[in-house]
Specification:
six-stranded mixed beta barrel; Lipoprotein-release_system; transmembrane; 2 domains; 16 helices; MacB_PCD
């Protein structure tokens, strides 16, 4: 009980010191509040931006994909006839189809894998869209519409028309939004498409899709896989790419290695396909945390300076307190109370203003023609950032008070009072 009384008395003295130097107290509180406000708002904005980018990646890119590549023939007939003669001149790719061997077997096995959520076989080929006398090159993806919708939510991204019209193997096609703009067509119009083999087809535009990535929306079109195989003149077993959506995206490298070795396919995962975007996410996190921590450290040094100056100003009062029975621990507690009060008040103010700032950022209109799902800046309001900011503010203040309080506790009352 006596301990509590002593601590209350020490806290009362500390509170008196705070009120006696209001301007310095306000500056210290403001510095902590500013640091936490910037931490909460910046981390919330950066995390919201990263979350939006991540969602955009996984709404347009599979976790794992398998494909064949065109390889250059580097071994000539002369190389095989005589090892001492090596002649390579204008080497050409090997004459091999891009279809995946035993694709139907691979798809069935992948569908049975508990780690795999969705499997989609795709036939992709370059084609020429004709607009008057002009020709635009784009990639047509023959897809399983149901599987692709489960993987990438294409129905939700259909701006006009009806995505379900490509569910049946009819001469319908869904165009990327920017590709349709180049072609100056709308849902319900017809387009003429020519394959690399020179076969022309008249297709009806079933709908327009906007994924959010311009590179896709101005270069991609979608149709039923059976229609694509018919246009290419290939059998139903012809598949150029297999896409996987996994239960846990972290398993992508393992799943890729497993089926690449099993079926001798080339494979890549979302980490490889989106390395630039993911690297940018990491850099944004580092920058936001570095700036926020720096601000809090600056605030901590401000508290340190204020407490140090206060000790020099209050030397005689501290000496009198010690002469009247205050112990070294009591003196330490006085200045710890000062710091914790500044830290708590500053942290609460910082959280309030940080939330208001983050809320204001989230209401800033942002209209980007290439992004379909964002009309305001993305901000995360995760409670973990607010808890971290509050604790960091208090810890910073407590650490800043250590050396000043230690110095105050070592004041010799006899020396000070003698002058």
């Amino acid at each position: 009980m006596q301990f509590l009384k002593d601590k209350r008395l020490a806290a009362s003295v500390g509170w008196t010191y705070l009120k006696a130097r209001k301007s310095q107290t306000i500056v210290a509180v403001a510095s902590i509040a500013f640091g936490i406000m910037m931490y909460v708002s910046m981390v919330g904005f950066m995390t919201g931006l990263n979350d939006f980018t991540g969602n955009l990646i996984f709404n347009t890119s599979p976790h794992v994909r398998f494909y064949n590549t065109t390889e250059i023939a580097t071994t000539s007939i002369l190389d095989k006839a005589n090892d001492n003669i090596n002649i390579i001149s204008h080497a050409k790719p090997k004459s091999s189809l891009l279809n995946l061997k035993d694709a139907s077997v691979a798809i069935r096995q992948m569908q049975a894998d508990p780690a795999v959520r969705v499997v989609s076989g795709v036939v992709s080929f370059q084609s020429f869209f004709h607009v008057g006398k002009s020709t635009i090159t784009a990639t047509i993806n023959g897809i399983d519409p149901e599987a692709e919708d489960k993987m990438f939510h294409l129905k939700e991204k259909t701006l006009t028309g009806n995505y379900d019209q490509i569910s049946a193997p009819a001469d319908n096609i869904v165009l990327g939004h920017f590709l349709a703009r180049k072609l100056n067509v709308q849902a319900g119009d017809n387009v003429t498409v020519t394959t690399n083999e020179g076969h022309s087809f008249n297709l009806k535009v079933a709908g327009l899709i906007k994924t959010g990535l311009m590179a896709i929306d101005e270069q991609q079109a979608y149709m039923n896989i059976a229609t694509a195989q018919k246009m290419m003149g290939v059998p139903s077993s012809y598949i150029t790419e297999i896409k996987l959506s996994l239960q846990e995206k972290e398993a992508a490298p393992v799943v890729k290695a497993k089926y690449s070795n099993l079926f001798t396919y080339h494979g890549s995962d979302y980490l490889e396909d989106n390395a630039v975007l993911l690297q940018g996410e990491g850099m944004r996190n580092i920058m936001s945390y570095a700036i926020s921590i720096t601000l809090l450290l600056v605030a901590g040094f401000g508290i340190y300076n204020i407490l140090t100056m206060m000790i020099y100003d209050k030397m005689k009062e501290i000496a009198i307190l010690k002469a009247t029975g205050f112990s070294n621990k009591d003196v330490k507690w006085i200045f710890l109370t000062l710091a914790l009060t500044i830290g708590i008040v500053g942290a609460i103010a910082g959280l309030i203003f940080g939330f208001l700032m983050a809320f204001g950022i989230s209401k800033v209109p942002y209209k980007a023609d290439m992004v379909v799902s964002m009309d305001h800046l993305p901000v995360s309001f995760s409670p973990s950032y607010y808890i971290t900011g509050f604790l960091f503010g208090i810890i910073t203040a407590a650490l800043a008070s250590y050396f000043p309080s230690r110095k105050a506790s070592k004041v010799d009352p006899i020396t000070i009072l003698r002058g």
